[in-house]
Amino acid sequence: MSAIFTVTMPKWGLSMQEGKVNLWLKEVGDRIEPGEEILEVESEKISGAVEAATTGVLRRQVAQADEVLPVGALLGVIADKDVDDALIDDLIARFQAEFVPPSADDADSGPQTQTVKVGNVEVRYLKLGEDVAGKEPLLLIHGFGGDLNNWLFNHAPLSESRAVYALDLPGHGSTTKVTGIDSLDGLAEVVVGFMDAIGLECAHLAGHSMGGGVSLAVAKRAPNKVKSLSLIASAGLGSEINGAYIDGFVSAASRNALKPVLAQLYSNESLVTRSMIDDMLKFKRLEGVDSALATLAGGLFAGGRQSAQLVAAAAGKPTLVIWGENDRVIPSSHATAIPGATVKVMPGQGHMVQLEAAGEVNKLIGEFIG
Amino acid sequence: MARKITYQQAINEALDQEMSRDPSVIVMGEDVAGGAGSPGEDDAWGGVLGVTKGLYAKHPGRVMDTPISESGYIGAAVGAACNGLRPVAELMFIDFMGVCFDQIFNQAAKFRYMFGGKAKTPVVIRAMYGAGFRAAAQHSQCLYNMFTHVPGLKVVVPSNPYDAKGLLIQSIRDNDPVIFLEHKALYTMEGDVPAESYIVPFGEAAVVQEGDDVTIVAIGRMVNYAKEAAANLRKKGIQCEIIDPRTTSPLDTDTILESVERTGRLVVVDESSPRCSMASDISGFIAQEAFGALKAPIQMVTAPHVPVPFAASLEDLYIPSPARIEEAVMKVKEYR
């Protein structure tokens, strides 16, 4: 007898308690392959697609559009087409009878962010997944103005077969804000110190945007600590960058000023929700963030040009380059800068390709690092 | 790094961080040190409810107990502000403001204007407000509307710990007189608050939750009641948008207007009595600016026009409740 699979409300980020079903992307009776998008869900922070983990036929849409359900709630059922309807109904009835929604307190008992001191910088990081012998951990490094939540749709899926760390760079997230750092190498110095502090001898690095540049700078500074490089819309591979975006981001002090700036990051601008803008404003209003970002932008992207060129740092490292074809911050023409790298330019995608096309990016990185 | 602290701790932290950052910031009021005169911290209560606890020992000479003479020390705070200090004066209960209206309405609020912009008056007056404590008619009022009425004053009514800290820091750094009002019932409310210093700007409403069916504008403690009501209404398929103005002066009319133009339905929740209230003010503004967008008459959920009753059963009836907010939303939703 073939198995019946449940599709449940995902948990995106530590604080997600419930999500809203936006719309079904598959109809009952549709054939589904692993990695295919089944339905779209919206959390307080962001909307995204729930992907199939299995092969089968969508047999039931248990949750309806616009329904708000707790994390873990039953959304749909996938099974082979010859599985008896009664069995499926039976499973749904049992699931609903036994399902206990997570309470707010459970959020405190799951994985928690931690901090570690690197010199006078207190670095916040989140580790997901278990250490696996023979598999170097993966370290995720976010971009300019971002934080470890930029990996919301990547961190957990990638951690199924290894330990995966994500950190907040200096001046970002909950890491120390005022450091005076104004170069990729300055950031890389802290990342190397972070790896030493938590006992990471060698790791696969995946960096987005400025974080890609930081990954390259780490490879240059401490080649032995870098197993491979996965560079997403990376800085350091050419001189072009959207100066208006950088300046707009640094100077925006209100929702109305920030919204059009953030919209440039996405191919689907409706992803820029009010809650995303509010969270970004909260970050920007922390004491020291303004000057940290301005200092960094001045050192890295003055006059709308990237100052650091780090193509050579990838020499000898297995390198994967991922880019959204329609990236409006760093042009996808930079994708082919590294000789011998595996390059994937994704049509229709923008700068935040790891969020907007998370399934495909996860698959690419997962297969690349093995 | 954000962690959970109470509204009361958030206010204490804002005072502490601003006193550390700027030596011109002082704290004064009745019992704000509480036990001044003795050297130790042991008997320094830090206000009737302990909001200023710990500041007396940490910032020697800058936390001053005053006589029980509001007209005297509020006047002194206004004068000190004109002369280069940034006093945060605590007036305990907003109900006692009456004895120092001249100092506030006629002096502090007017200096910048009457001296052609050459004078600044960076004073903050903190006070508790609100009913629900069996404290009777003289210790329970919601008078933010009276201060909102006076040009030259800024009026702040935070509804949660995050806003309380950021708005108090902004209040202290602001060069105009600010009336900073704390609902007694919120002191124990917990929420995520960054340990770092940060500001929440004046005149920027928070959209507490988004929804397309009905706009609820709620103030102070009522924001939390609106959230309760909205959670119930969501089960009935009604999506409420909740707007918390955070400051009643300046008032972020743009955010309210934008929302009502989309939903066409407005409920204003205000713990004050109804005449000349924020509820009537916001309703009047929307009736004038968005009449064409309205699909139903605006509903105001307020206290009745009577003094706050002492009898517990009556006081409970006096305060707007989540159930009354729900009723009002149903009324505007079902109008047509």
Q: Main beta sheet of chain A: strand number and arrangement?
A: 8 strands, mixed
Low-confidence stretches of chain A: none
Show unreliable segments of chain B: none
Major sheet strand order of chain B: 3-2-4-5-7-6-12
| Spatial ordering of strands, largest sheet of chain A | 9-10-12-11-13-14-15-16
The N- and C-terminal alpha carbons of chain B lie at a distance of 48 Å
What is the percentage of strand-forming residues of chain A?
A: 15-25%
Structural class of chain B: alpha/beta
The general outline of chain A is: globular
Radius of gyration of chain A: 21 Å
The count of β-strands of chain B is 14
User: How confident overall, as mean pLDDT of chain B?
Assistant: 94
Query: What is the CA-atom radius of gyration of chain B, in angstroms?
Result: 20 Å
**What helical percentage do the residues of chain A reach?**
25-40%
Strand % of chain B is 15-25%
| Total of helices of chain B | 12
Helix content estimate of chain B: 25-40%
**SS field, number of helical segments of chain A:** 11
Overview in brief:
The complex is a heterodimer of chains A (370) and B (336). Chain A has 370 residues and is α/β, with parallel strands linked by helices.
Structure notes:
The complex is a heterodimer of chains A (370) and B (336). Chain A is an alpha/beta fold. Helix content of chain A is 29%, strand content 23%. Chain A is built from eleven helices and 16 strands. Chain A has helices spanning 85-98, 106-109, 155-158, 184-197, 210-221, 243-251, 255-263, 274-284, 289-301, 353-356, 358-369; strands spanning 4-8, 18-24, 31-32, 37-42, 47-51, 56-61, 68-70, 74-79, 114-118, 121-128, 138-141, 164-167, 203-208, 226-232, 319-324, 342-346. Chain A has an eight-stranded mixed sheet with strand order 9-10-12-11-13-14-15-16, with helices on both faces. In chain A, helix 4 crosses helix 5 (210-221), helix 6 (243-251) packs antiparallel against helix 9 (289-301) and helix 7 packs across helix 8. The longest helix of chain A is centred in the N-terminal third of the chain and has 14 residues, at 85-98. The two termini of chain A are 32 Å apart. The mean pLDDT of chain A is 92. Chain B is of the alpha/beta class and 336 residues long. Chain B contains twelve helices and 14 strands. Chain B has helices at 7-21, 55-58, 70-82, 101-108, 111-114, 144-148, 161-173, 222-235, 253-263, 278-289, 312-318, 322-334; strands at 2-6, 25-29, 63-65, 86-93, 124-129, 154-156, 178-183, 190-194, 206-209, 214-218, 240-244, 247-249, 266-270, 299-302. In chain B, the strands form three sheets. Chain B has a seven-stranded mixed sheet with strand order 3-2-4-5-7-6-12, with helices on both faces. In chain B, helix 1 (7-21) packs parallel to helix 7 (161-173) and helix 8 (222-235) crosses helix 12 (322-334). The N and C termini of chain B lie far apart (48 Å).
